[in-house]
Amino acid sequence: MLSSLWLLLLPAASGFYLPGVALREYATDEKVEIKVNKITSTKTQLPYDYYSLPVCKPAEVTNAVENLGEVLHGSVIQNSAYDIAMGKSDFRVLCKVELTKKSAALLAQRIKEDYRVHLIMDNLPAATKMIREMPDGKTITMYDRGYPLGFVGSAERPNSIAGMPYVYNHLRFVIKFHKEETFAGARIVGFEVEPLSVKHQYKGAFTPDMSKLNLLTVPVGPDLPQQPVAFKPGPASELEVLFTYDVKWELSDVKWASRWDLYLYMGDDQIHWFSIINSLAIVLLLTGIVAMIMMRTLRRDFNRYNEQDKEDLQEESGWKLVHADVFRPPPQSIFLCASLGTGVQLLFMSAISIFCAMLGFLSPANRGGLLTAMLLLFVLMGVPAGYYASHTYKAVRGTEWKTTTVLTATLYPGICALIFFVLNFFIWGQASSGAIPFGTMFVLLLMWFGISVPLVFVGAFFGFKAKVKDNPVRTNEIPRQIPMQAWYMGGAFNVLMGGILPFGAIFIELFFIMTSVWLQRFYYVFGFLALVLLILLITCAEISIVLCYFQLCNEDYHWWWRSFLTAGSSGLYLFAYSIMYFYTQLDIIGFVPTLIYFVYMLVFATLFFLITGTIGFYSCYWFVWTIYSAIKVD
């Protein structure tokens, strides 16, 4: 599959498969603008402004950040000094930079930290071509985002000194365009960059005018001496570096509507299908177990419990014995309901975001769109959050609905806000563009307290006002004593066992998501992700129901919190997996990048815990209500 499900749902004839991205046609010799974005590294996870490096700048630098998501991603989109005209192949000198020891040391450090430069042309990111050999011997062409700032010399690289940093100071732009008789001009459908390191030499005085500059290193090729970023021993205080570029235009059969396919192709569709099949196998196993319990065990229980023979009733055992305690309000019900409200808020936000992304509204072409949409949806989903939190709290006979509402609106968002606020100081201390500006912080707080909190109260008002059905069985004044439980029915063991299958249903897809986030790859398979979310819902519901049934059969009626924690414990496995992923897949260096990784993964695991725990709780609530409504109790 070269494209995800959302590509298949939209008409190819129109060409507008990316809503919100304007189609543009360029006339011959019309200027094509190249914008510079942040520089990023998988080793540090700290983005920086491109112009924080000693590179060529335009006469006037202007910012072009388009949405809130881009700011939160640390994007700094600005104009550049590149001068490119449609269809015009050219070779130009961009500028000459005199590096001081300080600026050269900074550039060398960024090269050693494996930073990549990100450029944008006609909303297409610059990409470097990679040839990848498949297990069957075939080769496929793939693209990596951006281009490396430079490289460190090694024995494998010819004409380089081991350990010496070299800068890519010449860029070869291969721009692909598409033409048809049905429209005037040309449409840009590809933006490739081939970086080269060249130690340029020239005679006479330097001038950026190619007609007057006697440049000796033309044509540029890989056999020329490379440009080091290091001072030789001696009195020299400056190092001269010439930045150049050339442009090559190629006619392409790729249509504008399909121009992202090459960027998004990952060659791992078989693994995605394996993920779905693996998850479906887990679901089928659980469904079989649940069906056996429902159709055989529960039917037998109903027949026995509804038997009118008095002698049989005196010998009753199992989950009917706790009918007078099963709806006894749980301890700390306020915190439970607040957690459920936030879980509903996150679940609704995730489901709607994935659905919109599956349809193409939040595609990678819409930079920052996914994060912006998720923030807005989280704020707007305050209504169902408040409704479910207060309605559930009323069902457990709670009276402090205002306290519950305040905790729903502020507890988990407040913890996350505090964590990110403190972490932002560490990022700000590194002078990274990933630090959130205080103006953006104020906007986020305004969205939280100005929109989200009032909406939570609106939902809570209607939730507490809504009528709650009477419990199907009466609750006794005195709690029943719970018999001694076997070790395998203990709370901790059951909770830990309950999270294995939900995590197992999503861990393969989780690998691709984490690779997208931490290794800066494109993630586009939202059709697969929607299926995985559906499978996760079913898995959490079924495993929670099964373990809740076993718990009640052992006459333990404390199911409220355990049903929440059973499915929610998958968040614990997610965090454990993130630790393994850190040591096996990543090459992060430094204290602050490591802190960023583990703090982000801890927050993500907590949010996943709330989502899965909420699914488990409401599944068990429905199950308990259903089975106790079907028996006769005096």
Task: List its salient traits.
five-stranded antiparallel beta sheet, disordered N terminus, 17 helices, single chain, 634 residues, elongated, 3 domains
Please render the helix and strand layout as text.
Blueprint: H1 5-9, E1 31-32, E2 34-40, H2 68-72, E3 78-79, E4 84-85, E5 90-99, H3 101-112, E6 116-121, E7 124-125, E8 127-133, E9 139-145, E10 147-148, E11 150-152, E12 165-167, E13 170-178, E14 187-196, E15 202-203, E16 214-215, E17 239-251, H4 261-264, H5 269-305, H6 310-314, H7 333-358, H8 369-380, H9 382-395, H10 401-429, H11 438-465, H12 491-498, H13 500-518, H14 526-553, H15 560-568, H16 570-585, H17 591-629
Parallel strand pairs: 13-17
Antiparallel strand pairs: 1-4, 2-3, 2-6, 5-17, 6-7, 6-10, 8-9, 11-12, 13-14, 15-16
Helix pairs in contact: 5-13, 5-14, 7-8, 7-9, 7-10, 7-14, 7-17, 8-11, 9-10, 9-11, 10-11, 10-17, 12-15, 13-14, 13-16, 14-15, 14-17, 15-17, 16-17
Describe what you observe in this structure.
The protein is an alpha+beta fold. 47% of the residues lie in helices and 14% in strands. It contains 17 helices and 17 strands. Strands 2, 3, 6, 7 and 10 form a 5-stranded antiparallel sheet that branches. It has a 4-stranded mixed sheet with strand order 5-17-13-14. A two-stranded antiparallel ribbon has the order 1-4. A hairpin with a 2-residue loop joins strand 6 and strand 7. The longest helix has 39 residues, at 591-629. The termini are far apart. Residues 1-20 have low confidence and may be disordered.
